[in-house]
Structure to design on (527 residues):
């Protein structure tokens, strides 16, 4: 019988009759005892002498042994053979069964003849109408007879039979505190103290998702602002701290930690509000300075940071290819401009595209052939030399929402945004979209009701990994994986320990960074 607890946890209460261990050998032909010769079947007993010549007394009842379900088949239609250690958990049965060997028949429902009267051997103590003491005493029991009419060892959605409360938890749940009163209280898919199995605790602050612990690589990083990865390290920028007037002190950093674990390493200290981080095989690139942004670089091998260019009108993110850095600016006189410059700093910044549009922040991306970005008028792409400009999506298209996260593969652009909820008045949903770089219709890949927008978006060969957050105060963050085609989504992790996490992927790992006071860098295995 499958029952749901009010707190969402479920357990299966299997009501069982217990039979005896007649011998430790095989029961070659165990069948239902002939009522004419075995009138003591399931009768309470003190010793085997009370059971006649063909039955034995185990745990206060005349029963039979078994070796497999076939040897139980004559006892009842739902009989099965179970090791003694897996059954009864109550009364005098507990001690004797714990020390006994072999297996006994567990019967979900059976009728037997006792003294010429047909009796139902199943007693459910949670039934609304319990039998009278006299009637109850006449019902054959496989337990020790301690449970009387009106008494019970019932717990939430748990029933008693024959004084044996037998708990079997649904898949993904566990009775980790061995307390039948609260049932299978542990959700093994998300409980950080019982992740995947009772007793398997994750590290301090590490959430559990799908029964797998995240690994905390670093914590206490003040105001993480961006995240990047390569095959060996996770990199991040921290804004640092603010003075009493709200101004950012020059204590921000560019830092990293090995994906295999170890001590976090500061690559560049003493920065004013660094952000917009990008990494290639040799260098990290970032933007620092609140009033006058400066694009800087630092070698991954170490050394001082080098300013590349000062850009007072810098907006958006940094995008990289093998040769260039790309970014967007908004200038009062010329509208929006897409710029590029060589990563080695050998030439200054050059404008690629100019228009009368202002540009959404944090949303430019590049692949081998294209650069794409958002403007007030639409989602635009062009060849990387600035030619063949295409306005792929036009505002006020509902699919074009202001997103801080845009990624490209070889042929498609992907971004996230907000849409009006279809189930909650005045609420929102987080939506993931895609469109071919050659044009066409926008495809909605995923929708999560109640989401407050994309928190991070990453891509590999065939999947998208993204995060979103629900709620404003008691926030819960979700990590989701979505197929590029046809867009099937699966939640990997949900936790109130992850506040608006950033995300990156490398190899077989998903890397997360929390931007709240915990300042954690975590890894989670790709599914």
């Amino acid at each position: 019988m499958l029952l749901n607890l009010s707190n969402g946890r479920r357990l299966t209460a299997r009501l069982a009759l217990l039979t005896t261990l007649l011998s430790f050998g095989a029961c070659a032909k165990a069948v239902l005892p002939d009522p004419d010769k075995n009138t003591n079947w399931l009768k309470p007993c003190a010793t085997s002498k009370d059971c006649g010549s063909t039955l034995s007394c185990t745990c206060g009842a005349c029963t039979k042994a078994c070796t497999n379900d076939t040897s139980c088949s004559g006892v009842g239609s739902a009989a099965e053979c179970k090791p003694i250690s897996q059954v009864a958990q109550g009364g005098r049965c507990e001690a004797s069964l714990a020390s006994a060997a072999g297996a006994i028949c567990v019967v979900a429902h059976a009728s037997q003849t006792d003294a010429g009267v047909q009796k139902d051997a199943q007693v459910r103590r949670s039934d609304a109408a319990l039998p009278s003491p006299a009637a109850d005493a006449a019902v054959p029991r496989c337990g020790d007879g301690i449970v009387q009419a009106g008494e019970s060892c019932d717990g939430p959605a748990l029933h008693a039979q024959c004084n044996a409360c037998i708990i079997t938890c649904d898949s993904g749940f566990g009775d980790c505190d061995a307390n039948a009163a609260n049932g299978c209280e542990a959700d093994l898919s998300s409980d950080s103290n019982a992740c995947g199995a009772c007793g398997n605790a994750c590290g301090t602050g590490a959430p559990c998702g799908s029964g797998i612990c995240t690994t905390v690589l670093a914590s206490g990083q003040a105001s993480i602002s961006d995240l990047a990865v390569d095959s060996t390290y996770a990199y991040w920028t921290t804004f640092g701290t603010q003075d009493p007037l709200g101004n950012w002190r020059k204590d921000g950093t560019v830092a990293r930690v090995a994906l295999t674990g170890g001590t976090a390493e500061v690559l560049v200290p003493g920065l004013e509000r660094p952000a917009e981080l990008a990494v290639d095989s040799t260098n990290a690139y970032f933007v620092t300075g609140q009033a006058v942004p400066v694009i800087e670089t630092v070698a991954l091998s170490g050394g001082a940071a080098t300013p590349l260019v000062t850009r007072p009108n810098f907006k958006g993110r940094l995008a990289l290819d093998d040769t260039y850095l790309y970014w967007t600016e908004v200038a009062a006189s010329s509208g929006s401009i897409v710029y590029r410059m060589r990563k080695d700093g050998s030439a200054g910044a050059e404008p690629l595209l100019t228009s009368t549009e202002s540009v959404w922040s944090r949303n430019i991306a590049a692949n081998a052939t294209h650069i794409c970005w958002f403007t007030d008028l639409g989602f635009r792409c062009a060849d990387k030399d600035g030619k063949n400009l295409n306005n792929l999506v036009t505002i006020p298209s509902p699919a074009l929402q202001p997103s801080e996260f845009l990624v490209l593969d070889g042929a498609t652009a992907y971004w996230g945004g907000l849409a009006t909820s279809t189930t909650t008045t005045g609420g929102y949903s987080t939506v993931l979209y895609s469109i071919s770089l050659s044009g066409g219709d926008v495809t909605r890949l995923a929708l999560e009701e109640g989401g407050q927008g994309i928190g991070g978006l990453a891509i590999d060969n065939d999947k998208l990994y993204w995060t979103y957050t629900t709620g404003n105060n008691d926030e819960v963050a979700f990590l989701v994986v979505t197929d590029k085609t046809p867009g099937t989504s699966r939640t990997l992790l949900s936790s109130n320990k992850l506040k608006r996490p950033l995300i990156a992927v490398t190899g077989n790992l998903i890397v997360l960074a929390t931007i709240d006071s915990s300042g954690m860098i975590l890894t989670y295995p790709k599914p």
The chain has a mean pLDDT of 73. Residues 93-99 form the longest helix (7 residues). The chain is about 5% helix and 40% strand.
